[in-house]
Amino acid sequence: MAEQEKIKCNCNKVHEFMQEIEKTYKEEKDNLIPILEEIQEKFGYIPLEAQKEVSEFLKIPMAEIYGVITFYSRFTLKPKGKYAISVCLGTACFVKGSQKIMDRLKDRLKIESGETTKDGLFSIDETRCVGACGLAPVFTVNGEVYGKATVQKLDQVLDELVAKESKEMK
Amino acid sequence: MKSLQELHKIREEKRKELDLRVNTNADCREKHILVCHGTGCTSSKSPQILENFRRILKEKNIDNVRVIMTGCFGLCAKGPIVIIRPEDAFYAMVTPEDCEEIIQTHIVEGKRVERLLCKDIDGKIVNSLDELNFYKKQKRIALKNCGVINPEDIDEYIAFNGYEALERVLREYTQDEVIDIIKKSGLRGRGGAGFPTGKKWELTKASEGKQKYVVCNADEGDPGAFMDRSILEGDPHAVLEAMEIAGYAIGADRGFIYVRAEYPIAVHRLKIAIEQARNYGILGKNIFGTGFNFDIEIRLGAGAFVCGEETALLESIEGKRGQPRVKPPYPATAGLWGKPTLINNVETYANIAQIILKGSDWFSSIGTENSKGTKVFALGGNVNNIGLVEVPMGTTLREIVYDIGGGIPNGRDFKAAQTGGPSGGCIPKEHLDTPIDYESLKQIGSMMGSGGLIVMDDTKCMVSLAKFYLQFTVSESCGKCTPCRIGTKRMLEILEKLCSGEGEEYDIYKLEKLAANIQKSSICGLGQSAPNPVISTLKYFREEFRQHAIQKECKSLECKSLSQITIDEEKCKGCGLCQKHCPVDAIEGEGREKRVINQDKCIKCGTCIMTCPFHAIGN
C-alpha cells in the first residue's frame, strides 16, 4: 500500500464524490462492488482516500476492500494512461493474430500489460472479447475500436498519437 | 401502469403496424430501415449511419420511412448491416457516406443499390435474407426477436407476443403446472453443463424458506463468445419475462441480473427495459392484478471469469471476492444470502416464453433425443461468415462450419474447432460429422460450453493454442484451491518450455499427469475443466507436441523461437514490397536484388508473407 500513497490524490474531489455516493447508496455490504465501479469510472482508478471513505461508510475493513479491488480486473490501484490501449486477447482475436499486436505494442512502449508509461500518456491492457469478433483482431484506444488490426495499423495509430502529443507540448 | 386491456390493445395495434418486419407482402405504405446496433456493428459506426439516414430523410421531407435500431442480425462479418423492409433488401458493410445513395436510389427511385447488396460466399448477389446460405439451416427461437424489433421499445416486444406467456402463467397455471411444462420440454441449461432446467426449478421450489431469489447469469466469460450479449442487446424483455415466470414458479419476488460491465450496450438496454416494464406495471407490485410481486435489479460483474461459476457469482453479488463455495449445499437450497436461489443462463431464459406459448411438445420435437431445442453459437476465428448462429441440436459441425459459416477463408484447410472455451476442447477434422449435442461433444473430449465456437485453419499451432488457454485460466484462477492455483501454473510453465524449444519428451507425460490430478481435485468447474484444452489437443495432435519437444520445430509462426521466415530465392523477383511493409526493417537488399531476412531483427509478424505478390516468403 506504500506505493499507493505516492500517487498524488486530489482529496477534495474524492471527498466530494464520496458524499454524492453516500446519498445514493444504502449502507449495505453488497453495495461495495457497485460503489467501487463508480469510483473507478470517475477517477480511472481507486484512490486510497476513496478506499478509506468506503471502508468507513460500509463498515468494511480496508484489507477486505483491498482484497476485492485486487480480485477484479476492472479495478485498478493506479491511474491509466491518457491513451488507454487495450488489445483483445479473446480466442477469436487470438486465432487471428492479436498476440502479435500485443507483442508489438509492448515492444514499442517498453512497458508490460497492466502498466502505464512514465509520462502517463499510454497504458496497455489485455481484454477478453470486446464483442467485435467480426472485426478480429481488434484493439481499442480509450474505448474506440480499431478492427482488422495489423502491426502496421497499430504503428500508424501510435505514430499519430505521439505526433499529436508532441505538437501539443510545443 | 397499464391495464391488461390496454396491453392487449397495444399488442394488436402495434402488431399490425409492424407486420412489414416479418412479412414481405405486408400491406402498408411505410418502409422501415433497420440498422444493426449490436456491439459489432456499433464498433463500425452504425450509430452514425442511423443518424445520417434520419437527417437525410428529414432534408428530403420523406415521412413514410422510419429508421429503426435493432439487435444483431447475426452475420457480423458483413457489418454494419442495413435491412429495408418490407422488401427485405440486405445491404452489407454500409458506411455513413453510403446513406445518401441508399435513400436516393432505393427509397426515392425504387431501385436497389447493387454495389452494396450483400453477396454470398460464391459471389452471388443476395436479394433477401432467406436466400443467404448463412440463414438456411438456422432455426431462431432464442434469437427470434433479434434484428426484428427495437430493443429499446417495449411496445415492439409486446407486438410480437411479448409478455403473453407471463400473462397466461399468472392467470391460468399453478406453480407446479409451469414447472411441469418446462420439465416436459426437455430444456437444459445453456450455460454449459446442461443441467435439466425444469428439475432445477422444481428443486428450488421444494426448498424451504419464505425468501427466495431468481438470478440470471449474464457473466459471459468465455473469450470469443457473445451469444448472451447479443440476446440482451437485441431482446432484453425476453429475459425479464422469463425471470418473472421463473419467480412465479419457484415462489420468489426478487431477481438479479449479473452482467459483465464490459457489455455497456447490453447494460444500457437492460436498464431501459426494466424501467419500461416498471412503468407498464409488468414489473413491481400486483402484476396484472394477480397479486404477484416481482422486481429485478442489475449487478455488474467487474471482470472475473470465475464469477460465471454460480456460487462465485453469488459471492460477487454479496459484495465479496468471487470465490466459489464448496458444493453441496447447492444454490437451490442455500444460495444468495443463504436463501434458496434459482440461477439460469441468459440463453436458457430466452427459450422460456416460447415454450410456454407454443407448448412443451413443440420444443421437444426439435433437437436430438437428450438435447432438445436449439443452441446459439458465436462462430469466430478462421471462418468466412463470422457471426451469431442458432441451429437445432444435432446439427453437425460440418454444416455449421461449411454450410452456414461458408468455409475457411484464403483457401486454407480446416484443422480444428474449439468449443466450450477455456473449459472445453478441440474437435479435429475426423469428427466434423459429429452431431452437436451435450453427450456427443463430451464423448469426443470437448463440451457444449456456453456456445463459443472458434474455427482454426491449418496454419495454427495447437501447442500454442493450449498455452493460450492455460494463460487464461492461470490469470483467472481465483486462488482458493491449490490444484487450480498452483497446478495450472506448472502446466503453463511446461507449455512455455515446449513453445520456446526448451522442452523434452518427458514434459508431455508430466502434462498429462498434472492434468489428471487437477481435474480430480479442484473445487469448482473452472479448475476441474482447466486442463481440458491441453488434454484434448494432446489427444488429437500429439505429434505436434512431439515435434515441439523433440525436433524443436513449429510449423506455424506462433512459436517464435521455433520458426523462421525465409524468402525463396527462386521465386523472389526483388520488387521490394516486403521491405517497404516490414515494420522493423528486418529485410535487406537494394534495387532489384533478391531480398534476405535478417533473422535477428525479424519479429515474425508475417506482414511480408501477406504482402509478397509472388508467394516467395514462407516458413
Please provide a written account of the structure.
The complex is a heterodimer of chains A (170) and B (619). Chain A contains eight helices and four strands, in the order αααααβααβββα. Chain A has 170 residues and is an alpha+beta fold. The longest helix of chain A is centred in the last third of the chain and has 19 residues. Chain A has two domains: 63 residues, Orthogonal Bundle (Arc Repressor Mutant, subunit A); 87 residues, Glutaredoxin (3-Layer(aba) Sandwich). The model of chain A has no long low-confidence stretch (mean pLDDT 90). Chain A is 52% helix and 11% strand. Chain A starts with a helix and ends with a helix. Chain B has 619 residues and is α/β, with parallel strands linked by helices. Chain B folds into five domains: 117 residues, Glutaredoxin (3-Layer(aba) Sandwich); 211 residues, Rossmann fold (3-Layer(aba) Sandwich), CATH 3.40.50; 84 residues, Ubiquitin-like (UB roll); 90 residues, de novo design (two linked rop proteins) (Up-down Bundle); 55 residues, 2-Layer Sandwich (Alpha-Beta Plaits), CATH 3.30.70.20. Chain B has 25 helices and 18 strands. In chain B, the strands form five sheets. Chain B has a five-stranded mixed beta sheet, sandwiched between helices. Chain B has a five-stranded mixed beta sheet with strand order 11-10-14-12-13. Chain B has a four-stranded mixed beta sheet with strand order 2-1-3-4. The longest helix of chain B has 20 residues. The relative contact order of chain B is 0.08. At the A-B interface, α3, α5, α6, α7 and α8 of A face α3, β10, β14 and α19 of B.
